[in-house]
Amino acid sequence: MCLATSFDRMAERIEEDQREIRARHQENEALLLNILPRPIATRLKQGEGQIADAFPQVGILFADLVEFTKLSSVTHPTELVALLNELFTEFDELMTRRGLEKIKTIGDCYMAVCGVPEPVDAPAHAMAEAALALQKSLARFNDRTGRSFQLRIGLNCGPVVAGVIGSSKFIYDLWGDTVNMASRMESTGQPGTIQLTEAMAEAIKDRFDVELRGTFDIKGKGPTSVWILRGTKGQPGAL
What we know:
With 239 residues, this protein is of the alpha+beta class. It has helices spanning 3-35, 38-45, 68-72, 77-97, 123-145, 177-187, 198-204, and strands at residues 52-65, 101-106, 109-114, 151-165, 171-175, 194-197, 208-218, 222-232. Strand 2 (101-106) and strand 3 form a beta hairpin.
């Protein structure tokens, strides 16, 4: 074998190795972005050790599929997971289009935030619009699949702390009373409704129809006024 041929083959092997390295890098990048928001993933790759940030004003959403647990007891696991995956994939796409961030799913509960990891103007308004959009997305899903799912949605706005926990299995999560109250709004809400804290109702009442539901004993808070989001002013349920 002449020297030129040997050199050409060595160059081809090097190029092939580089292509494989680039492909693996792209795969790792995609996996990381499936776990963490892009700005957070970038900070981790740049060597930032502990990531924890305070945000003074965000919008928080919790959404839960009503009676999904009952359905899980009479539905084949493969079918159940396929249903949930199809629906939550639609929810993910909706959030992405609106610049919102899904934080996590816990069983059939879906959590999202607006204003994290990058602050935005009027996060409460954006989250209210997203909640109405989720209801419409679910209605389309029911029409297409013949199901009759309902969502129980809770919204709140206010300050949170956000950060990354874990070393081998990362998770980007939120903490604070704002998060807890959004979760309480979901768990104490009525099927098919969007329940709000008073803070959320005050923040969005200029553009949205909100209605006082009443005063309820909320865990950790005691008697608390809660509100219902009916739709956009002038266009009930509009996006």
